[in-house]
Design goal:
By secondary structure, the protein is an alpha+beta fold. It has 13 helices and 20 strands. The protein is globular.
C-alpha cells in the first residue's frame, strides 16, 4: 500500500528536523527525506554557537537579535548536555569601533531579551584578567559578554530522534526526484542510495533544503516553479582548527579592519576553533571547500591579536559550508546579508500546499519550525498549538537544566568508565547515555576500540538509533572523534561498518 503522510519534509538540516519534530508533536503524520546524512552540509559547518548575533546590531537587525536572544535561553534549557554557556572577550580597538559604540551594543544585547541563565556584559582590564595573557601587549582593555556553545550536528540528530519517537519517519540518503500535484495532494518519487524508487502521497511539502531551496523548486517540483518570491544568496563560511592557542575557558571575538569579526573558541579541550569567513559562492554546494585564501585570512586575523602566531601549516582540520541567505541586503557585502528567514507558502486553495524555507540561522531554528507548522496546521485541519518551547530534547531532561549534577551522578554510577569517556558520553547523549551503556559493566564490555576513543558499543548504538551508516557520519557528525582518528583507524571503522551491513543483509535475505 502506498504510504500517505500529512507533511513531507525535504532536507535533514536543522530547519528540516525542527519542523518534522514540531509537526509530529502536534499529531501530524510526517516523513523527512535527506539526500545525504543528517546535518551533512550547512548544519554541521557552523561556528557552533547559539547566539543573538552581536554584530547584527550594526545592521539594525533588532528584531532578529531579540528573537535569537530569546531562543538562546529556551535552547539552553532544552539541551543542557550539548548547549552550554560561553563567555566571549572582545579586545577594544579604538580605530575600528569606539568604546561608546561597543558599550551601547552590549547594553542592547543584555537587555533586548530577559536573561535568567547567562551573565551580563562588563569591561575588563587585560593586565588583571586571565584572557589578557595570550593577547599582544597593545591590547590593554576590552569587554566580556555571554552567549552559548552548541554541538551543531548533534542538535540536528536530537531533533530527528524526537521527531521519530513522536511518530515521524526519517529517511536519510533518500532523494526526492520529483513531486507532482495530484488533486489536493503531492505524488512524490523518492530514490534511495541503491537507486530504488518509492512513491509517497503527501498533503503538504516543506522545502527545507537549505542551499538547494531554489533548485528544488526549479527541478523537483513539476511543473516547476520558475521564480520564488525570495532570492537566495549562497555565502561560503569556512573555519580552521589548530592546537589550542590559550589555556582558559573564555572565547574571543576579534574585530578586523574590513569590519568583519572572527571568533577564536576553545574546542574539544585540546584545540582552538577559528572562523568564519564570508564570501559569495556560486558553485555546487555539494563541493564546497575551504580555499588557501580563506585559511590565510583566518591566520592573519588571529596573528593581529595573539602573541603566538599561526600559519596554514598549523591547521589540523578545516571545514566549509554554504549558508543560504535571503538576498535582500547590500549586494557588495555578504556580511550584511540578513540571517533572518522567510517562509513562502503556495497552493492553499486550489492545490496541495508547498512551504519553502528561505534563510535562517541555527539559533532560531525552533522558532522557524514553530511558525512553519503554524502556517500548515489550518490547511491540514489541525488545531494543536505550539509545544516545543518548554520540552527538552532527548537526553536533556535534567532538573533545573543542571548538567554538572547530572555528570557527577553519571560518573558515580559508572566508576569503571574512564573519566574522559564518561564526560564525553554525558555531553553527547545526556540521560540517553544509560541506553548506550545498557548491559555494560566494565570497560572490556565496550568491545574493540575501532578508532581512538570510539568503541564497538557506541558504534552499534549510533547505527541502530541515530542513522549512522558511514565512518564520516560517526567521526565528524555524531561525535567529533575525527580529530583523533588515524588513516588506519578510519579504515578499520569503515571495514567494521561494511561487515555489519553485510551481516544484516544476510540476516534478512
Amino acid at each position: 500500500m502506498q504510504k500517505q503522510v500529512d507533511i513531507l519534509v525535504v532536507g535533514g538540516g536543522i530547519n528540516g528536523v525542527g519542523i518534522a519534530r514540531d509537526a509530529a508533536g502536534r499529531g501530524l503524520s510526517v516523513m523527512l527525506c535527506e539526500k545525504d546524512d543528517l546535518a551533512a552540509h550547512t548544519s554541521s559547518a557552523s561556528t557552533k554557537l547559539i547566539h543573538g548575533g552581536l554584530r547584527y546590531l550594526e545592521y539594525y537587525e533588532f528584531s532578529l537579535v531579540r528573537k535569537a536572544l530569546q531562543e538562546r535561553e529556551v535552547l539552553l534549557r532544552a539541551a543542557p548536555h550539548i548547549i552550554s554557556p560561553l563567555r566571549f572577550v572582545m579586545p577594544h580597538v579604538a580605530h575600528l569601533r569606539p568604546a561608546w559604540m561597543i558599550r551601547l551594543g552590549l547594553f542592547l544585547y543584555d537587555n533586548l531579551s530577559t536573561r535568567s541563565i547567562l551573565f551580563g556584559s562588563r569591561s575588563i582590564n587585560f593586565k588583571s584578567h586571565v584572557s589578557g595573557a595570550p593577547l599582544q601587549d597593545i591590547f590593554t582593555k576590552g569587554f566580556v559578554y555571554s552567549d552559548a556553545w552548541v554541538d551543531d550536528a548533534r542538535l540536528v540528530v536530537l531533533n530527528a530522534l524526537d521527531a521519530k519517537e513522536l511518530g515521524a519517519t526519517i529517511r536519510t540518503r533518500s532523494k526526492v526526484i520529483a513531486a507532482q500535484p495530484d488533486g489536493k495532494n503531492w505524488r512524490v518519487t523518492i530514490e534511495n542510495s541503491r537507486q530504488e524508487s518509492t512513491s509517497v502521497i503527501a498533503r503538504c511539502i516543506v522545502n527545507a533544503s537549505g542551499p538547494w531551496v531554489s533548485s528544488f523548486l526549479a527541478n523537483q517540483i513539476q511543473p516547476s516553479i520558475a521564480k520564488a518570491h525570495h532570492a537566495i544568496r549562497l555565502v561560503q563560511g569556512s573555519h580552521i582548527v589548530t592546537k589550542k592557542l590559550f589555556d582558559h575557558p573564555y572565547a574571543y571575538i576579534f574585530q578586523n579592519p574590513d569590519h568583519r569579526i572572527i571568533f577564536a573558541i576553545p574546542y574539544m579541550d585540546k584545540y582552538t576553533l577559528i572562523g568564519t569567513t564570508d564570501r559569495e559562492y556560486t558553485e555546487d554546494p555539494d563541493r564546497v571547500q575551504i580555499s588557501a585564501e580563506e585559511i590565510t585570512y583566518l591566520c592573519d586575523s588571529i596573528n593581529s591579536y595573539f602573541k603566538q602566531t599561526i600559519s596554514p601549516t598549523d591547521v589540523v582540520w578545516s571545514y566549509s559550508g554554504v549558508r543560504p541567505l535571503v538576498g535582500e541586503e547590500d549586494k557588495n557585502n555578504p556580511s550584511a546579508v540578513t540571517r533572518d528567514y522567510h517562509l513562502e507558502l503556495d497552493g492553499q486553495s486550489d492545490g496541495p500546499a508547498l512551504l519553502s524555507v528561505f534563510g535562517g540561522k541555527i539559533t532560531t531554528f525552533r522558532r522557524l519550525a514553530e511558525e512553519a507548522v503554524d502556517l500548515l496546521c489550518p490547511i491540514l485541519n489541525n488545531d494543536k498549538t505550539a509545544w516545543t518551547a518548554k520540552v527538552p530534547l532527548p537526553g536533556g531532561d535534567f532538573p533545573h537544566a543542571d548538567f554538572d549534577t547530572f555528570l557527577n551522578d553519571f560518573q558515580r554510577q559508572h566508576p569503571w568508565l574512564m573519566a574522559d569517556l564518561a564526560i564525553r558520553y554525558a555531553h553527547q547523549y545526556g540521560e540517553r547515555a544509560v541506553n548506550l551503556l545498557k548491559g555494560v559493566k566494565r570497560m572490556s564490555d565496550l568491545g574493540e576500540e575501532l578508532s581512538p576513543g570510539l568503541f564497538e558499543q557506541e558504534v552499534c548504538y549510533l547505527v541502530n538509533h541515530e542513522w549512522a551508516l558511514q565512518a564520516d557520519d560517526i567521526l565528524w557528525r555524531r561525535t567529533k572523534l575525527g580529530l583523533a582518528a588515524t588513516p588506519q583507524s578510519v579504515l578499520r571503522l569503515t571495514e567494521w561498518l561494511q561487515q555489519l551491513a553485510h551481516n544484516r543483509e544476510a540476516l534478512y535475505a
